[in-house]
Amino acid sequence: MKVIAMKKLFTLVAALALTTWTLPVHATEPAPVKNIVLVHGAFVDGSGWSQVYRSLRSSGYNVTMVQNPTASLADDVAVTHLAISQHDGPVVLVGHSYGGVVITEAGTDPRVKSLVYIAAFVPDKGESVQTLIASAPLGAPEPPILPPQKGFLFLDRAKFADSFAADVPPEEASFMADSQVPWGLDALGDAVTEPAWKSKPSWYLVATDDKMIPPPAQRLMAQRMGATVSEVAGSHAIYVSQPTAVTELIKQAAEGSK
């Protein structure tokens, strides 16, 4: 009996020796996205992001600001792709106003992990700013856009502060009015081909005192794309007047895009 027992023991030991043991593998938590690309809208340039830029940089983010020519959507998407390509990792793409159209088209870039819309237009496939403003809510304030000049649009300087930057310090709002970037009619009418928000997570900041894009329209666009929504009291230039709120939403997107 002892011999039989010993044989069974040796057989068990041999079987254990041939067994491959697999230890549990714990998945590492992906790091937050550390690259941010900021896209300005119509009538302004990238300098308006300066406070948001400094805040993000002080928090350890790599930040690039796109300088859109705003003559056509295709040109603006091209320079946005160039800005994205300057980063060697995943990117959070942020757009204000018309910049929302740009990031909707450019955001299909595989390096873009998420989209952040700041008081921005959010078109679907085949839509443009022109089609979106055609369905503006009744009674909404009418932006003081002047008649086209050689294919470009400007805002009435005398009405710029009230409509675009009512909560920005007067001297700064005056500078913004006098340094307007011409907005091309092609950019206004160019349609999106493949909306990035249909395949990428999105965040939206509603400016509740906006007189350029009515807040109800902002909410509808944000709801349509299923965005994570925040609301802050501020003018259309909320990225200038409320940089902390804008920065915090961008950080949320970076954390949520891990």
Automatic annotation (TrEMBL):
<keyword id="KW-0732">Signal</keyword>
<dbReference type="GO" id="GO:0016787">
    <property type="term" value="F:hydrolase activity"/>
</dbReference>
<dbReference type="Pfam" id="PF12697">
    <property type="entry name" value="Abhydrolase_6"/>
</dbReference>
<feature type="signal peptide">
    <location>
        <begin position="1"/>
        <end position="27"/>
    </location>
</feature>
<dbReference type="InterPro" id="IPR052897">
    <property type="entry name" value="Sec-Metab_Biosynth_Hydrolase"/>
</dbReference>
<dbReference type="InterPro" id="IPR000073">
    <property type="entry name" value="AB_hydrolase_1"/>
</dbReference>
<dbReference type="InterPro" id="IPR029058">
    <property type="entry name" value="AB_hydrolase_fold"/>
</dbReference>
<protein>
    <submittedName>
        <fullName>Alpha/beta hydrolase</fullName>
    </submittedName>
</protein>
<feature type="domain" description="AB hydrolase-1">
    <location>
        <begin position="36"/>
        <end position="247"/>
    </location>
</feature>
<keyword id="KW-0378">Hydrolase</keyword>
